[in-house]
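Researcher: Next entry in the queue.
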Amino acid sequence: MCELVQAAETFISKNLGAVLKSADFLQFDIDDVKYMLKLESDEELIDEDKYRSVISWTKHGVCDRKEHFSDLFCFIQLDYLSSEFLNDVVRKEELVCNSLECMNLLVMSLSSRLCGAQVFRKSKGQFDKILIIGGDGCEQSVVKFHTKTNQWSKMPDTNIARGYASAVNYNQQILLMGGSKDNTYLNSVEMLDLNDENPKWDSNLPSMGEKRFTFASTLLNGLVYCAGGMNDNVCLSSCESYNPEGKKWSSIRNMNISRSHHALVSARGLLYALGGHDGNATNTVECYDPRSRKWEYIPPMKTHRLGLTSVALNNEIYAIGGLAGSNRFPSVEKYNLDTKTWIDVPSMNEKRYSGSACVVDGVIWVFGGVGAKTVEFYDPATNKWQASTNMDRERQFPCVLSV
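Model: Structure for this entry, 403 residues:
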């Protein structure tokens, strides 16, 4: 039965556009619609198809279904839609206009473009490689891992040796931020533009407002967000955002607690800060809404995790590995954004503290950590972790990004 379900999911993902446009889609119940909208696809303009399908499904039984519209609208990645589509189609839709939550999301996306943020477009075949930057003990080293062949290739070294730094991929521009060098904490930023034929690291970028190491970063609505970390042996609660187009850093509301060695991910228009260190390993999780500009606690993880890594995939947030006391562990749990509950996931093959992870083609890849040189991956379809290969060397706290 599991193989049959997996085969069905694979078929639907490959033909998602056609499924969303079919007459059968209009007959689905709300849970089936949410399931479809969670699926990833390599098809072009799939988010336009998702938007149109949500409108059609809601209007097919508008009296009974309009109460679900704002929840379904959150599954549409507005940053993958063109400004013309947002203005000419979405902004004029009555269902959107009648929902304060939907209008807030729309205004936020359009406003970010007025500030210079780019529209994100995924193309077929993109993001099948992984960039691994630095890590304690090999700070300037950068390598690329090819997921299809399990092969490694050398990339240009960073300009500055950065331990415990953080990085994001903004439209194939790799922004590497902060970290520490020779016991000095950094707020400088450098960038590697993978769109160039011969990319080189460029240090001519504005510095963060605060020096940070062992902090976390992610992308949301065309902006880079950085949260927490350490500075002069003080654990930080402060956060800031960066507009890559306007080249400007801005402070945002502090987290409820100070965190270092934590994780930060974005999902459905919100930021999630998980675990880390606030004097001891913590299991607390808090969520930031850019519309209200507030951090709020959500249900805590089952396990206290310091030095964990995290990814968002299929409407769930995964908390992977970490440390509590002197115990490193391989355990994994995930938070379902709909049910707002944490459930256990099979453990990794190796204990990992200070490893890093990313998602490629719906699969979670994990690299590095204290004493860990192996690479392993988790496929939600099989619910199993599998070993892939060994890393070029042991890397603790590397930056890992799909490219």
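Model: The longest helix spans residues 46-60.
Researcher: Noted, moving on.
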